[in-house]
Amino acid sequence: MAKPQEKVSFGQRLKQIGMVFSFTAKQDKWFVPLAAGAVLIPLALTVVAVLAWGWLWLPIGILLTVLAVLIVLNLRSNRAMMNAAEGQPGAAPQILESMRGDWRVTPAVSSTTQMDMVHLVLCRAGVVLLAEGNPQRVRGLLGQEKRRLAKVIGNAPLYDYTLGQGEGELPIRKLRMTLMRLPRNLSGKDVNALDRRLKALTARPQMPKGAIPKNMRPAKGAFRQTRGR
User: Fold this and answer.
1) How confident is the model over 186-210, as pLDDT tens digits?
2) Which of 5, 58, 177, 206 lies 20 to 30 Å from 220, alpha-carbon distance?
């Protein structure tokens, strides 16, 4: 049975917002001016509305001000995180795991000692391979994974992208939007069935637990005869 999620208190939520605010302000020079505008403009309109139509507009104006600040914080913090993730090995799986929806991510299904790696993503679009590292080396890793996956994915679509800033590469800041725009080729049942086949492909056989059955035990003296040869 799944464990119930722990509730986040109001104080913890404010602390998280403060940490995001501080991080975004350090990474994005336009965040503070935009946040100030999101506060000042709605407050100015609220003052005008209160003077013209009464105090009923005060709580409405405060709510609109808070909403405007949160919208600016959400948009600019996402941009700041994408910029900070550029060039960081292993950043792609973390971005995908934070996305809404059914994104089943297996980081570094194939890798090299030079920090080249290929990540496997299973979603409603099909199977997605994300490569990051040296373009020459990851090309071989992608080819290897495609041949391996071709044994089990059947007719499911297979997409592959190489992350980076070079020609023909996908910048990591565009990763989320690119995958969100992929067509939904599979149903939920198809995704579950494909997930089971992919797990079986990478599963390793394990020795059965418990006592060895009598009909599988070696005859008495077999080990002594083997050592005597």
Assistant:
1) 998 999 999 998 888 766 444 444 4
2) 206
Beta strands (DSSP E) in 142-191 are: 158-163
Rounded CA-CA distance 21/73 in Å is 7
C-alpha–C-alpha distance, residues 96 and 90, integer Å:
11
Q: Point out which residues pair with 131 in neighbouring strands.
A: 118, 162
Q: Residue 1's pLDDT is what?
A: 37
Q: What single DSSP character describes residue 174?
A: G
Q: Could you count the other beta carbons within 10 Å of the beta carbon of residue 111?
A: 18
pTM higher than the cut 0.70: no
- Indicate the helix (H) or strand (E) that contains 132: strand 126-132
State the DSSP code for 203.
-
Residue 210: CA atoms inside 13 Å, Cβ hemisphere, count? 4
